[in-house]
Specification:
Blueprint (H helix, E strand, L loop, with lengths): L25 H15 L4 E6 L5 H11 L5 E6 L6 H11 L9 H17 L3 E6 L7 H11 L10 E6 L2 H6 L5 H6 E7 L4 H15 L7 E2 L1 H11 L3 H18 L3 E2 L1 H12 L4 H4 L3 H4 L36 H10 L2 H15 L15 H7 L3 E5 L3 H7 L3 E6 L5 E9 L3 E8 L2 E5 H7 L4 E5 L11 H17 L13 H13 L10 H11 L9 H5 L4
Parallel strand pairs: 1-4, 1-5, 2-3, 3-4, 6-7
Antiparallel strand pairs: 8-13, 9-10, 9-13, 10-11, 11-12
Helix pairs in contact: 3-4, 3-5, 9-10, 9-11, 10-11
């Protein structure tokens, strides 16, 4: 990659989100403080607004990640087209409650019981609704009804509405006045100023190069970039990435004013034509269709950085020795249960329990929850193709191994549990320091095809297999329960399509992928968190 020629360990202005880049501009510090204060003081209703690309979604996601799970229960709703019933079902689902009912009263009762239980346990429940400016009046009224769930002295749920400036106009409508009056904390997230923009650019360069500055931007270039972007992180990233490519092609170590101007001109071509003629002040309201990726400003772990240090400190790089020592320090049985239950949680399955006096095994715990454990080999890209939460086998000092649950993958990083050296998100390079391949994937044989032993049962299983192959377009023969050459060929064709070994045999990986591709089944995937984090 072109950025590697400068000595960067990763792309400093990547067009995908990377929460490991830590930066708090002045507006983001203020917004973060308002949100944290409102949640801790149980304000009830909170509104966060801001233009497209200012970093609202990244901020609330990071805030939720920083809230202690022992003290807070959190949920994030990001589908703005839900119906009132759909919203309530989604809220219950996010909190792990029954969400199958179509009876609003029953769903409300279930949610209320959960909120009361959490309140008695001393925990605060937080619900964030993103892109709230797209919600209908009817759905917002349902949000107000959810907020009615309270005791004489406590708000049982803290609701954060996040949206573009249009959210304010929506809430000011006469029919929503009851909801609008309940919002006690409001904050409008402003774009960064020039000083913060300069610090932001320098920060990303230093972080991507382990504290070094192999590339600089001239003051004139930074002024051009700020004038164009208006301080929006999304646009800053887009221009700087193009400028970095220009510096590479010209073999320069500094981005000049002219190079920044060329990068801006190139970026303008990707903006919708009707937006290009807008003055820069209006541009910030018109970049909703911009194809650029997000700014990775992110927030501090634990608490706010003092302002004077916000642009300089970065998370420490993962130490291989410390990471492996930390994994080895956890008792094997404790590690097994923790990692297994992290994957079961992704399946929304009850936690596995060890039997007193008997050592637990991975396969035994999987069977306990109706799951199948299949060992696989390969790198992260191979696991990404399987798109299923997995248990990574990590060799530790002194012999033996520990398990690490792999819960999400994106281009730059992975989500893991339990935390490794205090980190639940690692770069791919950090994971490669401790894991060299080998994993176990947990999956569910929804129709019990692999467990049919008797002849009649086997025939029924083959019929189900043939129907699944038909659904994915790999079989057009009769559904007769006979594992014929044509059926075997259909299995092999499906395997070739999914980049599996095309032997025509119905192994665990093949059947797992067949359920995923056939539709009608809803296993969790590794990409879910990644897609949700694709907007800021």
């Amino acid at each position: 990659m072109y950025w590697e020629s400068f000595g960067f360990k990763e792309a400093p202005f990547a067009l995908t989100p990377n929460p490991s880049f830590l930066f708090l501009s002045s507006p983001h510090q203020e917004a973060f403080a308002h949100l944290l204060f409102a949640i801790e003081s149980r304000a009830g209703f909170i509104e966060l607004s801001g233009e497209v690309g200012t970093g609202k979604t990244t901020m609330v996601r990071t805030l939720l990640n920083q809230l202690d799970p022992e003290t807070y229960r959190t949920a994030l709703i990001f589908n703005p087209t839900l119906s009132p019933l759909g919203l309530l079902q989604e809220v219950n689902s996010e909190f792990g409650l029954n969400c199958d009912s179509c009876d609003m009263r029953e769903l409300h009762t279930t949610l209320n019981a959960y909120l009361l239980e959490e309140n008695r346990a001393g925990r605060t429940v937080v619900l964030v609704i993103d892109e709230a400016q797209n919600l209908s009046v009817e759905v917002l009224e349902q949000v107000r009804l959810i907020s009615n769930l309270e005791t004489d002295s406590d708000k049982l749920i803290q609701i954060v509405l996040v949206g573009q400036p249009e959210l304010n106009a929506l809430l000011s409508r006469e029919e929503l006045r009851q909801l609008d009056q309940r919002i006690t904390v409001r904050y409008h997230l402003r774009p960064m100023g020039f000083d913060d923009t300069c610090a932001y650019v320098r920060h990303r360069i230093r972080f991507a190069a382990d504290g070094q500055e192999p590339l600089t931007f001239s003051l004139g270039a930074l002024r051009r970039i700020f004038k164009f972007s208006g301080g929006l992180p999304r646009l800053i990233n887009g221009v700087c990435d193009r400028a970095l490519l220009l510096a590479y092609t010209k073999e320069r170590k500094e981005v000049s004013t002219e190079m920044a101007a060329l990068a801006i001109a190139d970026l303008r071509k990707s903006l919708p034509r009707r937006r290009r003629a807008l003055p820069m002040k209006a541009l910030s309201a018109g970049v909703a269709l911009c194809i650029l990726a997000v700014a990775g400003f992110s927030v501090l772990s634990g608490s706010l950085l003092p302002k004077e240090h916000a642009t300089l400190e970065t998370p420490p790089a993962l130490s291989r020795e410390a990471a492996l020592a930390g994994l080895a320090a956890a008792p094997e049985q404790q590690n097994l249960l923790a990692s297994m239950n992290a994957v079961l949680a992704a399946w929304q399955a009850p936690a596995a329990q060890a039997t007193p006096g008997q050592p637990a095994t991975l396969r035994g715990l999987a069977r306990q929850r109706g799951m199948t454990a299949t060992k696989v080999s390969g790198n992260l890209d191979a696991l990404a193709r399987l798109d299923a939460p997995a248990l990574l086998h990590v060799a530790v000092p002194g012999g033996g191994e520990r398990l690490v649950a792999l819960l999400s993958i994106d281009r730059d990083s992975v989500g893991v549990a339990p935390a490794i050296a205090g980190k639940n998100r690692l770069t791919r390079a950090e994971l490669a320091q401790i894991w060299s391949g080998g994993a176990t994937v947990l999956w569910k044989d929804f129709q019990g095809i692999s467990s049919r032993g008797k002849a009649a049962d086997k025939a029924a299983g083959v019929k189900l297999l043939q129907e699944l192959l038909k659904q994915v377009g790999c079989y057009d023969g009769a559904v007769n329960g006979v594992f014929s050459v044509q059926t075997q060929g259909g299995v092999a064709e499906f395997q070739r399509r999914e980049q599996l070994t095309a032997d025509g045999k119905l192994g665990g990986q093949t059947l797992m992928m067949l359920y995923r591709r056939a539709g009608g089944f809803f296993p969790p995937g590794l990409q879910t968190l990644t897609h949700n984090q694709g907007r800021i």
